[in-house]
Design the sequence.
């Protein structure tokens, strides 16, 4: 049975909107203002390398599909070669290699994906999808890279209205010279 892992860049106040600056958010690209160091970069590479499947919402998928196919290196190679599942009701013919669209019963299809996957199913970004996954009780682990900034406004990773999810802290450490925190939470029994 696969393990569904959500990985996110978030601010101290829980904003995860546009960390890379590709959208039209007033603070877009806010993560680039901080040094996450070799340890932070290694954490991101390691989590990608251990993933068997990439699971993305349509908006994140479109951003990744525009950026990653033309890049080279271990991170890009892995991301380009991995099987990718995108949840969308509007995307019909994805061009990025190894992509499958899920457009029906999302919770049911993702439960089946977990059953037929042996390793990690990694979800990056994809806020609407993450909310759906949390509501369907499908998230096994949250990996947060918390940047030492308060953005004050923007889309929050955990919006009002989601049910309580009891977690346990499995790992916490500081990476880089600017105090970026890696926090790994697993489902509490």
Sequence:
């Amino acid at each position: 049975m696969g393990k569904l892992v959500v990985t996110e860049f978030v601010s101290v106040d829980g904003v995860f909107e546009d960390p890379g600056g590709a959208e039209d958010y007033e603070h877009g690209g806010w993560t680039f203002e901080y040094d996450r160091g070799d340890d932070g970069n290694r954490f991101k590479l390691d989590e990608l390398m251990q993933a068997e499947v990439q699971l993305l919402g349509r908006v994140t998928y479109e951003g990744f599909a525009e950026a990653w196919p033309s890049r080279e290196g271990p991170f890009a190679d892995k991301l380009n070669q991995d099987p990718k599942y995108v949840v969308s009701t509007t995307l019909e013919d994805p061009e990025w290699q190894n992509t499958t669209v899920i457009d029906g019963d999302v919770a049911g299809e993702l439960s089946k994906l977990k059953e037929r996957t042996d390793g990690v199913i990694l979800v990056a970004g994809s806020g609407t999808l993450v909310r759906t996954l949390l509501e369907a009780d499908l998230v096994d682990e949250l990996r947060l890279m918390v940047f030492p900034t308060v953005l004050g406004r923007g889309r929050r990773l955990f919006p009002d209205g989601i049910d309580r999810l009891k977690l346990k802290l499995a790992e916490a450490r500081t990476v880089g010279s600017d105090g970026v925190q890696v926090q790994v939470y697993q489902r509490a029994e």
User: Anything to note?
Assistant: Helices lie at 37-50, 58-67, 74-81, 106-116, 127-135. Residues 3-187 form a domain with the Dihydrofolate Reductase, subunit A fold (CATH 3.40.430.10). The beta strands are 3-11, 51-57, 84-87, 99-102, 120-124, 141-147, 167-175, 180-187.
